[in-house]
Write a structure and sequence with these properties.
This protein has helices at 2-25, 27-38, 46-77, 80-91, 116-121, 127-133, 135-138, 146-158, 160-166, 172-207, 224-243, 256-281, 283-291, 300-313, 322-355. By secondary structure, the protein is mainly α. It folds into two domains: 2-297, no CATH class; 301-356, no CATH class. Helix 4 packs antiparallel against helix 12 (256-281) and helix 10 (172-207) packs antiparallel against helix 11 (224-243).
Amino acid sequence: MYRYLMLLSIVLAALFSTALLISTILLPTILCEQLSKVFPDYWFMWEKAENFINIVRPVGHTSLAVVIVLIVVGFILKKWKISFLGSLILYLPTFSYFASTMFFLASIGVLRVLWFPLIDLMPGATWSEKVFNVRYILELGSIVYLPYDISVFIVGIAVLPIFLLINPLFPFDEFWEVFFLLSFFVIILIGVAIFFIATINWFYGKFTKQNIVTWGIYRYSRHPQYLGFILWSYGLLIYDTYVFKPVKGGYFASPSIIWLTVVMIIIAIALYEENHMVKIYGEKYIQYMSRTPFLIPLPKKLENILTYPAKLILKNNRPQKPLEYLTVFLTYYIILILLSLAYNTTKSILTTLLSH
């Protein structure tokens, strides 16, 4: 009996994980080809582009409002799946970077209509100026690139010289193109693999009536499915920033602030779920929390640094009431935006110095 339940868990997890992988690697290419017939690249047909923008602008504003309502209502009603669905929809336009077009809404780029309210906030006499200036909002979460940029730096000083010594004729730019593409696939695959293993554990736990799943990958992370999703979505962000090569005139800033927002919503959902589990299972779940990391194992000092702002605000280490969640969310959001501004400035200065 248990063997069949495990087999069923593996099959279901494989279906979900395969769908996630296909949606990343194959589906965007297919959609680009099909949607280009419906939403063409207007190139320099400015009047047609303007007319199309005026048609879809209300759709964009309405869609974003609906997404925000989904996220908020999910928290109010404690229906976490609704909030997660809202955050997933908010992130969907990141797939638009698979379309290399001049007109930002051409082909699969039409998904960017969801971010239209952000574009309309920006100064500019024309829509192209507004699209260019929206980078000032979308890049407000660039601190999230820090772990990846550190890996790039390490590869640059430790691997690249050895590689070029062995292959002196290999083009410098192509090395980084290959590295960025490979790292995108690696991050995506790691995220999907974690999601796959966690889904097996979760399904099997449900089938065998386990109130709290504490075995398998759940011994090392209390929310491995969310961790897998976060890594998967981070891989997409890396693609948008480092792999995607827009055609001339087709620039659209990478959405680091969108990824940051989605991740913070997911973390808030996870905290809400845990408070709910504590109310139901009490000391049993508290003991599980005490011995298992929230997302990933971290050194105690780093964990203390990351949780310090929350400890300053709250009497307990964890938010309990809606206002506490909102306060902690906004506090971390502001801190990360300020760090992003500092990070952008530092990178600009270093780029300028190195160019000279």
